[in-house]
Design goal:
4-stranded antiparallel β-sheet; 0% helix; globular
Length: 124
């Protein structure tokens, strides 16, 4: 059974960097045909795919977030991490990590695995 779990601070101050980690169990993030994404859902809005890191370590980001987003991984811990810089209150959202054979979808149904999500609030 594949499980994903997000962890990180629930409150971040404006202009700071948001950092979240996704720990994966039951599957290797380096296994063939695997894409590991970060997706968020602001209050009252739909899902927004943010970026992905492939099983080979290649990253792709949503164009509107590219300048502020970085995804990395620690293969020894089977984890991948999101960093979002220069946050504003508009970055307040539930952040999810997800995995499977999809790399850039806003639709939950396109992913094989989902974390439970973690609320991040940007406020001073």
């Amino acid at each position: 059974q594949v499980q994903l779990r997000e962890s990180g601070p629930g409150l971040v101050k404006p202009s700071q960097t948001l950092s979240l980690t996704c720990t994966v169990s039951g599957a290797s993030i380096t296994a063939n045909v695997g894409y590991w994404s970060w997706i968020r859902q602001p209050p009252g809005k739909g899902l927004e795919w943010m970026g992905v890191i492939s099983h080979r370590g290649v990253t792709v980001y949503r164009s509107s977030l590219k300048s502020r987003t970085s995804i990395s991984r620690d293969t020894s811990k089977n984890q991948f991490t999101l960093q979002l810089s220069s946050v504003t209150p508009e970055d307040t959202a539930v952040y999810y990590c997800a995995g499977g054979r999809t790399s850039n979808s806003d639709s939950r149904d396109d992913y094989d695995y989902w974390g439970q999500g973690t609320q991040v609030t940007v406020s001073s």
